[in-house]
# Entry
Amino acid sequence: MRPPAIFESNESEILLREPLTGFRRVNTMIIETFRKNLALAVLAAIFVLSPLTFKSAAGAVDSLSDADKLCLGCHGYEGMTKELTDGKKLSLHIKGEAFAESVHGAMGCASCHAAIDLKTHPQKTQIIADSRKYSVAMTKVCAGCHAEAVKQNETSVHAAPLPGGRLLAPVCTDCHGSHAIRSKTAYNTCAGCHQAVMNNHEKWLPNAGLHLGVVSCAACHAPMALRMVDLRLYDSTTKTWVVEKQDPPQFEKMARAADKDGNGLDAVELRKLMALINRDPAAPQKSLRGRIELRTDIEAHELTGKAKAIKDCAKCHQQGAEPFQNVTVSIVSADGKPLRYKAQNEVLGSVLSGDSLREFYAVGGTRNGLLDILLVLAVLGGLSVPIGHQILKRIIMNELKRNAQTRAPAAPEDQGRA
Amino acid sequence: MQRLYVHPLPVRIWHMINAAGFVVMLFTGTQIRYVGLIDLMSFGTAVSVHNWTGMILIGNYFIWLLFYLFTDKIRVYHPELSPTKHFRNSFRQMQYYGYGIFKGSPNPHQVSAFDKFNPMQSMMYQVVMFLLMPLLAVTGVLLWNVQGFYGAVLFFGGVRVVDTVHVLLYIFFAFFITFHVYMGALGHTTTAHYKAMFVTGYEESDEVHGREDGPKP
# Structure
């Protein structure tokens, strides 16, 4: 069937040619109105349905306050941008779900954006010249709660270029993000900018790959900080860190129960804890992977340049080294932070932890004392062979001489007298 | 006294490199493990020298292996399969070293080109060359690049197991090197075996004709 042909006859009417019935006059106002109504309906649908685009199945955004939801009412739009004076566009889009799930989700938008007054926002527009300048200026807000970390960072190699006007120097948000801030360790953070890190270390560091996987960047690049060993539960089948999924959390309870005298898990107690964690033979067996980290996260901000970074192997690779004096056993919690429990430092080198801790060893630094005794015995044993053999030689030669003398005939002058 | 050519040149070269290499490995290995107790060189230097010398010794091992695999001299490494014979001969050898040697008795084992090891030496060298040195080399290579060989490291029980095996072997060789060097001084003269192994290749034999087929029954 051929579609009806449309003949424009006047402004408000059109003729539709219809098969069988001929022409029909149709009021264009109706069509115009219909088209307008359709457009409005589509807009309304987008307006109404758009919250669904950033609402997760778990409803993370639901956990935000009403005030925050109001902000997201506009800032939740993906295309929301602001034109800057330099002509570039700054995205004003905030992923609500990511913010809700971040460590700041509970604090709300106003905790950092206190300068925004809803009486004048968004009517009164802020003039932003440069996106980078704006980001750097916003990080002044962090010091409000994180004064210590900001102070540590001020003398770091990262903050050094800033006073000179080099705005590309890393600020808080470059490592931690701005709205989707989650517990971040230096492992994940640094390589994002420092991409040549592996090649650079391979030039001088033996087992560079192993070091980068086991030692946090800040452990060497924040030389003033104190270090520790964290033995973290690892699932070698899925090749991921074990996450505490139980509610209520079980790990700390189990560790506390295993630590009979409450002074930290010793080698035997650690073995018992691992046996308890791995009690189900059908489940993937968990192991402990050790990492050298800083004792407090805040100290990770006092980063120095390459020249001052620790390059002396003896800092770790000797008996009694500082990093091995503090040991914890940990599991990753649901929000990404480690849940630690204290362990005694003997677990690192003890024979009794040989089974529970297979994958952490620092040459010389976590060595077993029994093997040192064995070495001394071996060297002494080696020396005792020549010494003992020579003594035996003296004894036997003397004995043989004595036997030969008693068997020998009497001296000639005696015989003459007889 | 008859002079018999028992140490062919490839064997002498192999032994010289091995001897020098082992001394270097022992010193550097001790420095690596005992920073703070000894200070012969920096940890980094010790690791570097240890790695390079280790690789040379692994190559050297293959010189030894290929020489013996492709010549008839492999017979010197044939094990004595009869336990009674082996025990009897070993005991006789121990008696010689503990007493007979001081009396001036002849060595119960006569060296020849195809039978240069006495029964105790024979067993010791088989264990050292076919078991201990390969283990030492393999564990060393795994420790040289733990992450690269992580699958193998885990297969053997983790890095602590691999390192403990390596250290136990180090301890054995720390004993062995003194023992071995001293035993070398127990020839006809103090320097006879050293001259034979490092310089000439010729050992002196008490027999007028060298016995080609093993010690006297």
DSSP finds seven helices and two strands in chain B. Chain B touches chain A through 44 residues (CB under 8 Å).
